[in-house]
Specification:
Elements (H helix, E strand, L loop, with lengths): L2 H6 L1 E6 L3 H17 L3 E7 L10 E4 L2 E4 L5 E2 L4 H8 L6 E3 L7 E5 L2 E4 L4 E2 L2 E2 L2 H6 L5 H8 L15 H8 L2 H16 L8 H4 L1 H10 L2 H14 L12 E4 L4 H10 L3 E5 L3 E6 L5 E5 L5 E3 L1 E4 L3 H8 L4 H7 L4 E12 L11 E3 L10 E3 L1 H4 L8 E9 L11 H16 L7 E12 L5 H12 L5 E3 L9 H17 L1 H7 L3
Helix pairs in contact: 2-11, 2-17, 3-17, 6-7, 9-10, 12-13, 13-16
Bound molecules: flavin-adenine dinucleotide.
Length: 487
């Protein structure tokens, strides 16, 4: 588009260059090209690099993920986007022949029994023989087959749901470290409907989680596998790490003005419609529509002046802080070789780390052959103060925990620490109602859109879907917007 044409065109700003903002920008670009729409689009990112929580570093032959390390294949939006931007052949699956997760039980690593799908046992013998759950605990889990299903649509916390269906022990030893671990949440606050709606559906459609999971598994097995469509494991990543997707998107966004290292410090609404964006490093920008793909508390700060009601609702979305500590070891220094994807730790065990992924076993292409790469998780609900320990203190904590839990006392040959302050949005009970209310209120401010991990899914596929849908919604409102601002 030449400059004169651009002057006339509608201007759109996407604030936040994480995966949600990138997906929105890419969708606007591709749709504008396909429909020959003229729009000047700006993607504004405070940091000097794009990607937000997605942060891969290549160091001495290691591929180190500071934030997310994979995404769920069942939610197709991430793999689809990777395919569209030419990364299909770089999608990698997990090494499923090594697939085993351990749970720390009374200080020891105990394998999660084969056949346990998320929290639901689907194979009798491995479950019956597992030392993880006591005999009364197993019998209580089996009662799921008899307990009547919950009628109604009311939300409840994960804690109440799992206690109701599978009992207290299943909550403490399986659900809390696995389900709440994924969302870095407190199970007594975490919304079932916003984070695991499938469980409510299983309960209501089949009368029992176990019955429902068995039937769904049978149905899935009877379907012909789709061949030639990339790896089929539950989780996927990219050969060079998840930043490969960010870098490819960045280089594909030829029609978008990328403003990196520019923090939006203020957002004002023009009385006649449209917005003025104040930036940390350059003159203000006037735009007709804005997508805020930033954390809820940042969005609240920016819109408080002209949309105080929405800002107040956004402030209800809480965040917690975490850190990841990655360490590499020489295989020859490890006395007890291990296999599996890592372990999770119930909070009852009272440890200083919450989980550990055995990264170079879970995925290929992550570490030189003669080494092992591990990643430990620190912080989260009730343990956020751990994130502010110094690097040296964090290393001491992690090494102490690895020694106690895995007998690993070798000297690490590489260590990387990433702190994620206020990075994990908390989907508390009734989160979906809150989000609906926020989105309804936004309809009263034409041209204002909110998207990203604060709202309808924290995982990368959901962030991509939300970014795409928000962009489509904005583009669909263009005729309206053009009339309003007399273009
Ligand atoms: C440690 C960790 C591990 C995770 N693991 C997984 C995983 O394995 N799989 C998975 O699917 N998900 C995982 N997640 C969740 C997932 O990574 C995030 O939910 C997702 O990446 C968020 O994307 P986003 O674009 O919505 O937000 P963000 O990535 O937070 O992007 C927001 C961007 O906005 C910018 N910004 C903020 N304020 C301003 C401003 N005023 N002006 C300009 N720019 C601004 C920020 O700098 C940032 O780049 C993990 C998250 C963390 C923290």
């Amino acid at each position: 588009m030449n400059l004169a044409a651009e002057e006339q065109a509608l201007k759109i700003a996407i604030i936040g260059g994480g995966i949600s903002g990138l997906a929105a920008a890419y969708t606007i670009q591709e749709t504008s090209r396909a429909k020959n729409l003229k729009a000047g689009v700006f993607l504004i990112e405070a940091d000097n690099r794009l990607g937000g929580k997605i942060r891969t570093e290549q160091v001495d032959g290691y591929t180190i993920e500071g934030g997310p390390d994979c995404f769920l294949r069942q939610k197709p939006w991430a793999a689809q986007l990777a395919g569209k931007i030419g990364l299909q052949s770089d999608l990698i699956g997990t090494n499923d022949e090594q697939r085993k997760t351990y749970v720390v039980n009374k200080g020891s690593l105990v394998p999660l029994p084969d056949g346990v799908m998320l929290i639901i046992p689907t194979r009798i013998m491995p479950f019956a023989l597992s030392p993880l759950i006591s005999i009364p605990g197993k019998i209580r889990m089996g009662l799921d087959l008899l307990i009547p299903s919950f009628k109604g649509e009311r939300d409840e916390c994960i804690g109440d749901f799992v206690r109701r269906r599978l009992g207290k022990e299943a909550l403490e030893k399986i659900a809390e470290p696995l389900l709440s671990g994924i969302h870095v949440s407190d199970p007594e606050k975490q919304s079932l409907l916003a984070t695991f709606p499938r469980f409510r559906a299983l309960e209501q459609n089949h009368g029992s989680l176990i019955q429902g999971m068995l039937k769904e598994r049978k149905l899935a097995a009877s379907k012909k596998p789709v061949s030639g469509n990339g790896p089929t494991s539950l989780f996927l990543s990219l050969r060079h790490g998840l930043s490969q997707m960010v870098n490819k998107l960045e280089s594909s966004l030829n029609d978008i003005h990328l403003l990196r290292g520019q923090r939006v410090t203020r957002l004002e609404r023009h009385p006649q419609g449209g917005f003025r964006i104040s930036l940390s490093g350059q003159a203000p920008l006037d735009v007709d529509a804005v997508i805020l793909a930033i954390p809820a508390y940042e969005a609240s700060n920016l819109i408080e002046g002209f949309a105080p009601q929405i800002a107040a609702q956004l402030d209800h979305i809480r965040y917690v802080s975490t850190a990841t500590v990655t360490m590499a070891f020489q295989k020859s220094d490890i006395r007890h070789p291990f296999s599996g994807f890592g372990f999770v730790i119930p909070s009852k065990e009272n440890r200083d780390i919450s989980a550990c992924t055995w990264t170079s076993i879970k995925f290929n292409h992550r570490a030189p052959e003669d080494t092992i790469l591990l990643r430990c998780f620190i912080g989260g609900p009730g343990k956020e103060e751990m994130v502010s320990l110094t690097d040296d203190e964090l290393i001491v904590v992690v090494r102490r925990e690895l020694k106690a839990l895995m007998g690993l006392d070798a000297e690490p040959i590489l260590t990387r620490i990433y702190r994620w302050e206020k990075a994990n949005p908390q989907y508390d009970v009734e989160h979906l109602t809150l989000v609906k209310h926020i989105f309804d209120l936004c309809q009263e401010v034409p041209g204002l859109y909110l998207t990203g991990s604060a709202y309808e899914g924290v995982g990368i596929p959901d962030c991509i879907r939300q970014g795409q849908q928000t962009a489509e919604k904005l583009l669909a409102s263009l005729p309206e917007m053009k009339t309003e601002i007399n273009l």
